[in-house]
Amino acid sequence: MKKGVLLMILTALSAVTFAQSQPEEVTSRNSWLKLGVNAGVPFGNLSKTSNFTLGAELKGQVMSTNHVGLGLTTGYNHFFPKDGFNNFGTVPLGLFVRYYPESRGFFAGTDVGYSFVTGVDGATGGVYVRPQLGYHNYSWNIFAFYNGIFRSEENGSSLQYAGIGATYNIRFHKRS
């Protein structure tokens, strides 16, 4: 089932990527970095060991059309433990797609990729999916999200949490 979901997500991302006309060159009008923070509340098995999570994220986005943004994403999420458990974190590496119906207003999107687990001996990461709904303007994105890291049974249970986040758009400027 997990492989089927991953295949569907990758197929959808591929369709969006290749169906849109690509920009001729990367400029300050069609590309920028997004620097952000997020906070979340674990649920499922993760809620037995962690109280909450705080994270930082970095994204590089290119607008393939006026309404669709594509890019790469990474960051770090720190999980604060309950008594008797240890701190740990995750480092996601992925792709993302965003749909912006208007130049200002609501947006929808998802991140997909692989998330590495840090701070736990012998722990491995897993495929992650992070759908988001939010509000955007020229400089900011504010959003709610679900984050699921799906690991194989022998590597431990899935890591799931939901939260809120914000990113600031850092635009490239041409030198004169």
Question: What does this protein structure show overall?
Answer:
- With 176 residues, the protein is mainly beta.
- The chain has one helix and eight strands.
- It has one helix at 2-19; strands spanning 31-43, 50-63, 68-81, 88-99, 105-118, 126-136, 140-150, 159-171.
- An eight-stranded antiparallel β-barrel has the order 1-2-3-4-5-6-7-8.
- Strand 5 and strand 6 (126-136) form a beta hairpin.
- The radius of gyration is 17 Å and the shape is elongated.
Number of domains: 1
Principal-axes shape call = elongated
CATH topology: Porin
Summarize model confidence as the mean pLDDT: 86
Strand fraction equals over 45%
Point out poorly predicted stretches: none
CATH top-level class = Mainly Beta
- CATH architecture designation: Beta Barrel
**Structure annotation, total helices:** 1
First-residue to last-residue Cα separation: 53 Å
Q: What is the strand tally?
A: 8
Specify the biggest β-sheet: 8 strands, antiparallel, barrel
The H-and-E topology, N to C, reads as HEEEEEEEE
Radius of gyration: 17 Å
Across the major sheet, the strand order is: 1-2-3-4-5-6-7-8
Q: What class would the helix/strand composition place it in? A: mainly beta
Into which percent range does the helicity of residues fall?
10-25%
Question: Helix and strand layout, with pairings?
Answer:
Elements: H1 2-19, E1 31-43, E2 50-63, E3 68-81, E4 88-99, E5 105-118, E6 126-136, E7 140-150, E8 159-171
Antiparallel strand pairs: 1-2, 1-8, 2-3, 3-4, 4-5, 5-6, 6-7, 7-8
